[in-house]
Amino acid sequence: MRSVADTFKGVTSFWWGDKGLSAFLILLFISLFLGPFIESVLMRIISSLFFSFLLISGVVTISSRPLPRFIAGMVAVAAIILRWADRFTENTTIAVWSAATSLLFLAFMTGVLLIRVFRSDKQVTLHRVKGAVAVYILFGITWSMLYQFLDLSFTGAFTLPAAHHIDATTRQETFTYFSFVTLTTLGYGDVTAIHPTARMFVIMEALMGQLYPATLLARLVSLEISSRH
């Protein structure tokens, strides 16, 4: 019978390997697109559970060393606790700290995944290409947390539809929508940035959304096709 240590080692080896990048992409899609299809409290709770599991799995993928995992784990635990507290309370301070901790962890995880995907010491595989797509989606999620933080920190940083009725869940979904609209430069105009700091980050995300697929992602795909032949 396998011990707990062997099981944990096998799980971490999977997440730290290239196959873990593909699994992480699937988890991202589930956590991002599961909730909005069914408008119910249960589905929103399930969506939050998947987001919590996303943070936990991110701890495993961050590093093979104990210390970075421990630090990332502490930040992830704080982000998960504050996120659930924000779900069931209307406290602005909790909402600000929830957005801040989630932003910190997601930004760190995005940077680590970028290093893993674009490192040159291993052959480019389809799993690494999927990992690069996961990084692109993480850009959108990370910026949505940044927009939430700015909205809570600066009064009137964004124009939001029915802002006086918005709750924690609706705020999160609104800024996730706005972030991906900005990342893909669609720009519908129903949510706009007003504060100069918010506008600066909107421009940065729009540039990243155009340059990343056209340069880094395209380069990785070409290397994967070359290695296949």
What does this structure look like?
The mean pLDDT is 78. Helices cover 78% and strands 2% of the residues. Helix 2 packs antiparallel against helix 3 (41-62), helix 4 packs antiparallel against helix 5 and helix 5 packs antiparallel against helix 6 (126-153). The termini are far apart. It is an all-alpha fold. Strands 1-2 form a two-stranded antiparallel sheet. It is built from 8 helices and 2 strands. The radius of gyration is 18 Å and the shape is globular.
- Tell me about the largest β-sheet: 2 strands, antiparallel
How far the N terminus sits from the C terminus, by CA atoms, comes to 42 Å
Number of helices: 8
Task: Give the H and E element order.
Answer: HHHHHHEHEH
Using the alpha-carbon principal axes, give the shape. Answer: globular
The tally of beta strands, per DSSP, is 2
Order of neighbouring strands in the sheet with most strands: 1-2
User: Roughly what percent helix?
Assistant: over 70%
Q: What is the structural class? A: mainly alpha
- The overall pLDDT average reads 78
Question: What is the rounded Rg?
Answer: 18 Å
Beta-strand percentage range: under 5%
The stretches of 5 or more residues where confidence is low (pLDDT under 50) are none
